[in-house]
Input
Amino acid sequence: MENKIPLSVVGLGHVGLPTALGLAELGWQVTGVDSDRDKVTRISGGQVPFYEPGLQELLSKHLESGRFRPTEDINEAIRSASVVFLCVGTPQREDGEPDLTQVEAIARTIAQHLNGYKLVVEKSTVPIITARWIKKTIQRYARATAPVAAGAGVSNANGEAEAPALDVASNPEFLQEGKALKGFLEPDRIICGVETEKAREILTAIYQPLKRPMVITDLTTAELIKHAANAFLTTKISFINTIADLCEAVGADVTQVARGIGLDPRIGPDFLQAGIGYGGYCLPKDLRAFIRLAEEHRVDFDLLKAVEKVNEQRIDYFIKKIRQVVWVLRGKTVGVLGLAFKPGTDDIREALSQKIIDRLLKEGASLQLHDPRAMANMQRVFPREAGRVSYCASPYEAARKADVLLLVTEWPEYRELDLARLRDAMEVPVLVDGRNLFDPHELRAIGFEYHSVGR
Ligand code: UDX
Output
């Protein structure tokens, strides 16, 4: 069956596009579909609509190779494929529940186009039992729309048209923005929740070229693995941030504590970077959803509620730190380095920078903002405002005549800055580093008043 199964990826966002191009890179024939016409036009023209390292090159390569075909025609994308990967958004509703409207709508559309066997693979992060709902929805609406599917369907004993065979699988994605392609092409593990041998065989064949460990489970277990992984990562971050508070109180160094505990393979060194907390489109939203899910099933997960609370308090912590350093914020000029929710992306969704900017503006400060990639996105949220909000072409410009400089996102290029030039640009050389990017000794030796997190 290798490389002969036609695949479709529904949703060409931060997960869908790297997935589609990653599958094309593995040799599969992939149709990518998105309901946003502008997005499809841009992608068809060879332009990635967001910043993700390496993706642009891969898009050009597979438009050229013909292995990736973007379209806005969802009906055709479903009819032409045997395996349909669902990578549509599951945004958070106001009440904190995930909004599954898009997932449900696609399930109903699939139901109308069951022109042969389909394996529907859920990749979006969704609450447990969503896969079962997808299956139920497809089966329910397939029956209601039997004439459409009848041509390729089979008949039951009564001679009525039956929808062709259908499988649903859960194949959660663990990719991190900024490292999406590496995450797809060199995953630590591939999780597949399946119900049938056929679904297992197909997914094993699809991912076989990666030669990475596969964990095959039932549907619900696979869905739970995704939730548990994200929840554990946030727990690590909130844990080390609380250790950072303790370090500040007793005069210890959190970066050394992280190194000291991280070398224990039972703990591991990753996700022990203390700072101003976790942001982004996934971790905060997924943790909230997981807490709600546990509550719904009457499981007491107070541990995760504490993780969330610690994270929410990080912004207060950071603002308080800035206030302790500059005293009065009203009328002060504050330079901000880094707006993206983390380095390597132009994504500002649930970025802590947004909360920090909002708070500083309310306190009456003027802001000079810089980011290597995310300024265009941030300008849509905080437009330029004479004397209050400006976007700067370089970090040095953001530092110009500033009373304090904040490091909010640890872009590696900031580590390469000419620190003497940065110091000279400022009104007073004060730097508050929310991500522990710089070496305190170096900064102080150069004449900065330097403050960081937990050391
Ligand atoms: C995350 C998960 O890592 C990924 O597996 C899942 O598929 C989607 O959600 P992503 O949102 O791309 O990925 O970002 P990630 O690299 O996990 O960082 C999330 C946030 O945590 C960032 O704001 C980052 O600055 C923060 N973080 C991360 C820390 O504060 N400390 C750390 O040690 C690591």
